Amino acid sequence: MSNLGIYIEIKKGKIQKNVKEVVSLAKSSGNTIFGVIFTNEFQNFKDELNGFDKIINVKGDSLVFHPDSFSETIAEIIKEHDMEYFMGSYSFKAKEIFPRIAGKLDECSLVNDCVNYDFGSAIAIKPVYSGKLLKEIEIKNKLKLITLRSNVFPVVDLDAGSPELIEKTISDKIRSKVINVKKSESKSIDIMDADIIVSGGRGMKEKENFQILEGLASILNAGVGASRAAVDSEFASYNMQVGQTGKVVNPKLYIAIGISGAIQHFVGMKTSKIIVAINKDSEAPIFKKADYGIIGDLFKIVPMLKDELEKVL
Questions:
Q1: Which domain holds residue 87?
Q2: Is 135 helix (H, G, I), strand (E, B) or coil?
């Protein structure tokens, strides 16, 4: 039996739901599961930490996310507890942390954005070439760093248990300073966590029209995304961008509104369980990829859709 660590990501005062996916996969390994959480308010989260054998609570005077201090601290934890695995969700924070951890440790391999991992064969599977192929990677190094794509792995029932609590102070070995954190203008759910996403493209015509999508999203409890064309036109902020140069999402339902469906956008949402397209151009490529399509003026269709949904939801 080996030791396996999991980064427990907190966002807006809540543990990210995809942490449960990582824990569910980790439990199949039969290893001792460590959770690493950065917080000075552990009491607020202790009831959500099912499935862990041990919890390492990292405390400090300032726990504002900083790639240097977080990665240095996790690297110390991996060495202190002789971990064979360290895993997490493939998020923006993980993209910052995990490569830095790999650079600090010897005999270490990192595979990001995995859609499967087999503990017996030590083979990770991840999409390559914009999702056109799946690549199998055998990890031979002793320490394996792995991040998992969200909304891919099933969540199993996890025992509440009483994990052992270990406290640790955050590292002060940093080479840069966080001066300011700018919050997104979007008030909706983060698209990386959303089961439903409503996305707008160039067809939205102007930034103010994204309020139409916000209204629909509020009914569906959905996140609001955007195509690169919409972001480049300053209709939406970059953190809302779905696609090859934005976020890769995997919701149960993806509603593409006023989006033509260029391949660069499609690779960011192609694994959505159901795709619905609304576009006035009947020749738009998005219709070839959608499960359901509505041809027409989005400024008439979306308000009608919202009104009908309000009647049943």
A1: 3-169
A2: strand
Radius of gyration of the chain (CA): 21
Phi, then psi, of 179 in degrees rounded to 5: -90, -40
Q: Helix, strand, or coil here: 26?
A: helix
Rounded CA separation 90/192 (Å): 9
CATH of the domain at 308: 3.40.50.1220
DSSP secondary structure of 167-228: EEEPP---SS-----PPPS--SB-TTT-SEEEEE-GGG-SGGGHHHHHHHHHHHT-EEEE-H
Q: Residue 91 is encoded by which pair of tokens?
A: 């998020």
CATH number at residue 87: 3.40.50.620
H or E element at residue 100: helix 92-104
- pTM for the structure as a whole: 0.81
pLDDT at 62: 83
Task: Tell me if 188 is assigned to some domain.
Answer: no
**DSSP-assigned letters across all residues of 219-266:** HHT-EEEE-HHHHHTTSS-GGGBBSTTSB----SEEEEES----HHHH
* Domain presence at residue 9: yes
Q: How far apart are the first and last CA of the chain?
A: 48
Helix H or strand E encompassing 142: none
Looking at the fold, whether 80 and 207 belong to one and the same domain comes out as no
pLDDT digits (tens, 9 = 90+) for 152-207: 898 888 887 789 999 999 998 887 877 877 766 656 688 988 999 999 999 999 99
Domain count, the chain: 2
Tokens of 71: 């990665």
Residue 105, SS3 per DSSP: coil
